[in-house]
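Figure 6 in text form: structure in, sequence out.
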């Protein structure tokens, strides 16, 4: 912590800065942003950045509510001295600027490459990508209204719905949970009709997380049913392939049996007795 220098009344201009939230760049590491800013996801990017800056007491740096103090102050002896508070502010500002730059894709980064402070960079990004916020909000609302699971997995489908809702919240236009649930249920495939009907039959929807939990449980039941059906079909076909055809058996293959042979002559059949018996009967016309 930087000790507060002795100041007379001529140094009162720096006092407001001393009340700013204390922040140590050397001890604090800002977390990485999972989704980098591109030309079409400003609201989603902003929704990640704002809470982190606010949580560390740094949002005022990008909004210029915590501005740079004078670089020098007047000491007790009346001479100008470097302002240690200004040095701390500069280190913090540059940390935030570097962190913001690391969260940008190539296109947006090229727009702020000459920015010297985090507030400058923030203003450029807000001007370039935040000016389309109203159109983007309408677009996201339309995407939610026409959301369809299609061939996507349930998890991917739910992630898409929640991402759009999060972006709307970040833009200051949060969607009611019940409205989001309606959008999610409407876009599910016909295989989810039983659980959709059960949820719609209730007087009130469960919480959003409760609905999502019900959908996940139902998907597991669907997968188990498909697996069971597939196993039954497999074993049925397997048993059929191993079953011997039922038909007339050859008498000569049976111990003590008889075999019937037909002569080449006219209507003459001979019947052989059991093996080892030399006697024979001939049937004459």
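Output sequence:
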């Amino acid at each position: 912590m930087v000790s507060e220098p002795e100041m007379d009344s001529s140094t009162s201009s720096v006092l407001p800065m001393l009340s700013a939230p204390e922040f140590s760049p050397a001890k604090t590491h800002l977390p990485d942003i999972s989704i980098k800013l591109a030309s079409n996801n400003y609201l989603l990017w902003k929704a990640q950045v704002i809470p982190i800056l606010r949580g560390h007491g740094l949002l005022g740096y990008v909004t210029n509510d915590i501005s740079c103090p004078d670089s020098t102050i007047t000491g007790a002896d009346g001479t100008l001295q470097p302002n240690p508070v200004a040095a701390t502010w500069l280190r913090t500002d540059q940390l935030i600027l570097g962190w913001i730059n690391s969260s940008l894709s190539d296109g947006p980064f090229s727009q702020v490459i000459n920015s010297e402070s985090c507030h400058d960079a923030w203003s450029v990004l807000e001007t370039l990508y935040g000016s389309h916020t109203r159109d983007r909000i309408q677009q996201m609302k339309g995407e939610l209204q026409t959301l369809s699971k299609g061939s996507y997995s349930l998890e991917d489908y739910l992630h898409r719905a929640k991402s759009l809702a999060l972006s709307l919240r970040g833009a200051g236009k949060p969607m009611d949970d019940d409205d989001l649930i309606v959008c999610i249920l409407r876009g599910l495939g016909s295989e989810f009709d039983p659980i959709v009907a059960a949820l719609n039959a209730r007087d009130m929807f469960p919480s959003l997380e409760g609905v999502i939990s019900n959908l996940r449980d139902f998907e597991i039941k669907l997968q188990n049913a498909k697996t069971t059906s597939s196993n039954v079909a497999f074993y049925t076909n397997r048993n059929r392939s191993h079953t011997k055809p039922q038909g007339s058996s050859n008498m000569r293959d049976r111990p003590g049996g008889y075999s019937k042979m037909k002569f080449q002559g006219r209507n003459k059949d001979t019947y052989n007795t059991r093996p080892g018996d030399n006697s024979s009967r001939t049937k004459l016309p």
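Caption detail: The chain is about 50% helix and 5% strand.
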